[in-house]
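Hi there. Long-time user, first ticket. I'm pasting a complex I've been working with (about 771 residues overall). I'd like to know whether the download I got is complete or cut off, because the file seemed smaller than I expected. Thanks.
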Amino acid sequence: MRTFRIGGVHPPENKLSAGKKIETLALPKQAVLPLSQHIGAPATPIVKKGDVVKVGTQIAQPGGFVSAAIFSSVSGKVAKIDEVVDASGYRKPAVYIDVEGDEWEESIDRTDTLVKECTLTPEEIIAKIKDAGIVGMGGACFPTHVKLMPPPGNVANILIINAVECEPYLTADHELMMEKPEQIMVGVSILMKAIKVSKAVIGIENNKPDAIQLMAKVASAYPGIEVMPLKVKYPQGGEKQLIDAVISRQVASGALPISTGAVVQNVGTAYAVYEAVQKNKPLFERVVTVTGKSLKNPSNFLVRMGTPMSMLIEAAGGMPEDTGKIIGGGPMMGKALVNADVPVCKGSSGVLLMNDKEAGRGEMQPCIRCAKCVSACPMGLEPYLLATLSAHADWERVEKEDVMSCIECGSCQFTCPSHRPILDFVRLGKGKVGAIIRSRKK
Amino acid sequence: MENKLIVSLSPHVHNGDSVQKNMYGVIIALIPALLVSFYMFGLGAAIVTITSVAACVFFEWAITKFILKRDHSTILDGSAILTGILLAFNLPSNLPVWIIIIGALVAIGIGKMTFGGLGCNPFNPALVGRVFLLISFPVQMTSWPVAGQLTSYIDAETAATPLALMKQAVHGDAGALAQLPDVWSLFLGNNPGCIGEISALALLLGLAYMLWKKIISWHIPVSILATVFVFAGLLHWANPEVYASPFVHLFTGGLMLGAIFMATDYVTSPMSHKGMVIYGVAIGFLTVVIRTFGAYPEGMSFAILIMNAFTPLINTYCKPKRFGEVVKK
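Hi, the file is complete. Here it is re-exported in full:
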């Protein structure tokens, strides 16, 4: 069975919410929609206080080429445009909407009928994806339309669908595949048409045999789409690792993934593309896993954007007494939230509650140079060295040791027997070196 | 509620490994060899091992507290105990207690704590102690009790080790190689030598345990053993009268102990797999060179210490294979 070739670790899977059907969460009283839910320029609001909006009404337009539109997830009145602390921990401008009823834009097809036929041209498909505000749903939130338009000189020859879900605990993609396989296949076909390729591979780790079986069965009716089971290994869901696993080609340092001829899209993105192109439904809701060892009912919810995380936790049995940390996303790459009122955004794949015991870090000991971080690094770097050089502020050498190739997957820190905060220091080095490189270009 | 939330950077989980688990893992891997040493040398082995471990732990504690003046003692992390066992394993079973204590002081004091303690030492502390004793007390360090004298200690009857016989052969004693025990008894450990090094079988069991528990990777031990086998095999093939068979090389002296437990010391060995192989091949080569052509019958300790010195250089020039360097089709 295939997998990527360098490094990797096996964190305990803890898929507590596996097999839990996707439930639709109740509407919030107020939806808070940050204007920056994607990589790139923040969106520009096109509504003002007092405006009446429906579900699916555009409230902000892209603020540049690499940016995405934002749509209202609820119907009601714009209460204010103000700041909110989002999952990143920073204050970001957001549109606050007081919810009244649940009135949808008429153009949206709310039926369950599967629409297979798509007669649009590739350009029309990409325009529609852009107009629906779709971004990568795996967590990185890169605007999807940008990825579908390779820069001149690059030609796509394969579409890889990331259904790996290698983060422990998360099951949103898994459940989506179990419940909406046909829709996902149509979405994949549309993406294939958009980038003009005849082959697509859906990569699924073999800890989800039911999804592999179901998806393979459904895929047989769609020409060119193949389901590939992958050996379980973290971080297989990293774009570069997944390309290596599926087509055995490694993106050169500093190059774009498209240089290998592969375009990677998340399985959740494929579903969003289906809804946008075939059902005229812009991106304003998504599946979110709510999980944690102390949580009563780990669940998968269909949630409108802008819903506070606290509502999800409430619906899953309430905040456990012993909660020590709330994580937006998975335990390997997710971000610790400053409070439970952070709104669900386009990239929110999960909420993970850790109890007091799990929340802290182990006691740091001296580096014993065991080289386990070197073996674990999926980018072939030397994490111990990068961390030491960063701690000594030797930015020149940090750059020379390829710090910018780090994907921040956390495998090094996960394996370190001395509990050293390796990735904290590597991030510091990456930030400094990134700034130095930018200033050099100017 | 909100006040007690921890906000830290990812990753938020850890695999549960620790310095202690690794150190005690190595100690568990040493148990078969320890049992063999008790079985072969009885009282002597017990006295040497206990003295060495107690002295190493004591010196680490005393130096941390009174010289470095650190509040946090590291004696429980297992590394001092491990150094003690490994030092003892490299000593003959009739060594007087006061010499063992000097060895422990040098191992921990000079070999380890001088450089700042765990993780900072460039040379393997147990080998620093052993080589210091070998040079300072050559007579006591090279008199080897015959196995099987369970109740004797300093008064034990001694005999030449297989390595000494091999050296005699190189120096022209034509009958020396014929006096060697057969390969099978060398493999099991029924011959004179340092207390922990005699049984290749017991040490290989330890290797299997450490590989299974992923405490070490295969690169260093395998490259050392393969190099010794090939190089000694070539010499033997060229002149079997003078040069002992490669199997005798593999199963005698400190080769197994060195390749499995000493050269693989985390702190003093290279970080990349490529580097580990270069390090292992060089150790294997140097060992056979010293054994065959050098002044001492055994070269393992010297070979490892020499390559310890090269480890920073190897780390500088042997980088792991970076992602994306793989040649595209």
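A couple of notes from our side: The beta strands of chain B are 144-145, 158-159. Residues 19-140 of chain B form one domain.
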